[in-house]
Specification:
Length: 337
């Protein structure tokens, strides 16, 4: 228990029904992963957690992927194809989030209960589970207009085919002799080309290295608590949450809200681009002198609306981030191939 929670610049937790009823006024975190559900089931604490955590932390939803129910005789998904099962789960997840989606979603991929689920290392199961995972992500990307990520253990990175490896990563590695840099190096060595954004470094809830779990001090019913650190670029974090880093502690529970320049009108159509310059500012309005609300770095994928706003001055045109506040100069974007 060598790592201290306070040593990370941007720190977080993740929760589900297993944390019980949470007093969010006590949660000391910048962000929280919040389980939406699994299969056809919405986590029984999701609605409460999603609503009560709003404006107290930056919220990051995750979905535990059921890769087995459609292969078990008598289960509710028995006989559903792998691709359709992934699509069904994505649509159920989106229905729970639409209208109040924040951040990006991470698809949690790990072994199911061995009492009824075959291990993901089984060759046939690996093939079918990857079909389900890909169908989920394709459908959820389509619905959300965002390029969503994967949560998994560092030891599982080699399990994924190349199709998955450019996605944002939330990596679990309970090894407190590691550092953010060594985690990112291990991820890269495993062939993952996407950015490792979050490191889940512990599940014991001990925040200060003394061996005493602090879950109850964070408003949980349980002492244990998953602990996370944001290890991706701060610019990604800023862009992900509209340029506003919410920092809420029990002593300061009111985050500063920035004014919204205009309402968001989602057209329902988007195009995938990548950033084609070292850094690209996200502007509140399609003008070079409007407020900067975020920043992306080279190679980062973004979904933008199909329509183009005519630019002024040296900028030929602007693309609005799909379903979000903010515009990006078209000159510095290229189509994702």
């Amino acid at each position: 228990m060598g790592l201290k929670y306070s040593s990370f610049a941007i720190k977080g937790i993740d929760v589900s029904l297993f944390n019980g009823t949470i007093d969010w006024t006590k949660v000391d975190a910048h962000f929280s992963g919040i389980r939406v559900g699994y299969g056809r089931t919405i986590d029984s604490k999701f609605v409460e957690n999603w609503l009560k955590s709003k404006s107290r932390v930056n919220r990051i939803p995750y979905w535990y992927m059921d890769y087995y129910s459609n292969h078990i005789k008598g289960f509710g998904a028995d006989g559903v194809s792998d691709a359709e099962w992934g699509k069904i789960q994505a649509e159920i997840c989106w229905n729970a989030l639409k209208g109040d989606f924040e951040g990006i979603l991470f698809l949690d991929i790990e072994n199911g209960n061995p009492a009824y689920a075959k291990p993901l290392t089984d060759s046939a199961t690996k093939k079918s589970a990857q079909i389900t995972a890909r169908a989920f992500l394709e459908r959820f990307d389509q619905l959300s207009g965002k390029f969503n990520g994967i949560y998994t253990s560092v030891g599982w990175l080699s399990w994924f085919s190349a199709w998955f490896k450019d996605r944002p990563l939330w990596c679990a590695w309970y090894n407190e002799s590691q550092t953010a840099e060594s985690v990112k190096k291990a991820v890269k060595t495993a062939g993952w080309t996407g950015t490792c954004l979050i490191w889940q470094y512990a599940s014991h809830g001990c925040t200060n290295g003394d061996g005493i779990p602090q879950g109850k001090n964070f408003g949980m019913e349980m002492k244990v608590l998953d602990l996370n650190a944001w290890i991706g670029p701060v610019s990604f974090y800023s862009a992900l949450f509209g340029g506003l880093l919410v920092v809420v502690t029990p002593e300061d529970e009111t985050p500063i809200e920035e004014p919204v320049d205009e309402p968001i009108d989602i057209t329902g159509e988007f195009v995938e681009y990548v950033i084609n310059t070292s850094e690209l500012n996200v502007r509140a309005l399609p003008t070079t002198n409007s407020k900067i609300v975020g920043r992306y770095v080279s190679g980062w994928p973004v979904n933008v609306e199909k329509s183009v706003d005519i630019g002024t001055g040296s900028v030929a045109g602007w693309k609005r981030l799909y379903g979000q506040q903010g515009y990006m100069a078209l000159d510095y974007l290229k189509l994702k191939t």
